[in-house]
Amino acid sequence: MNQLKQSQSLSDRVIREDECRKLTGVCRTTRYELEKKGRFPSRLNLGGRSVGWLLSEVMEWVKSRDRINSGKAA
Questions:
Q1: What is the spatial distance between Cα 27 and Cα 10, in angstroms, rounded to a whole number?
Q2: Which of 60, 39, 62, 40 is nearest to 51 (CA)?
Q3: Which of 48, 66, 70, 68 is CA-nearest to residue 16?
Q4: How far is CA 35 from CA 6, 7, 30, 46, in A?
Q5: What is the pTM of this model?
Q6: Whose C-alpha in 2, 11, 20, 25 is 20 to 30 A from the C-alpha of 42?
Q7: 42 falls within a domain
Q8: Residue 4 confidence class, pLDDT cut points 50, 70, 90
Q9: pLDDT at position 13, please?
């Protein structure tokens, strides 16, 4: 597996609520509101009441927030 594919597969794991909150610094309610407005990655239903997010999508959202906050939004 080449380096790029290996990197992508590692970042596409599913993260749960606690890790998502730690990575984003955004509480569950605010993320839910942002998700409804299409401004945060959609959650994945894992079965029952369990949900998660793709790490790659969450990290891309975090990076986009960093660009906006530093005034470098594209």
A1: 25
A2: 40
A3: 48
A4: 28, 26, 8, 17
A5: 0.75
A6: 2
A7: yes
A8: low
A9: 97
Q: How far is CA 2 from CA 5, 14, 57, 71, in A?
A: 6, 22, 21, 34
The Cα–Cα gap between 74 and 63 comes to 12
Structurally, the chain folds into a number of domains equal to 1
Q: Confirm if 42 and 35 have CB atoms less than 8 A apart.
A: yes
Residue 33: domain span? 13-69
Handedness of CA 1, 60, 16, 48 (dihedral sign): negative
* 7 located within any domain: no
Whole-number CA gyration radius for the chain: 13
Judge whether 50 lies within some domain: yes
pLDDT in tens, 32-45: 999 999 999 999 99
Spatial distance between the Cα atoms of 48 and 26, rounded to a whole number of angstroms = 24
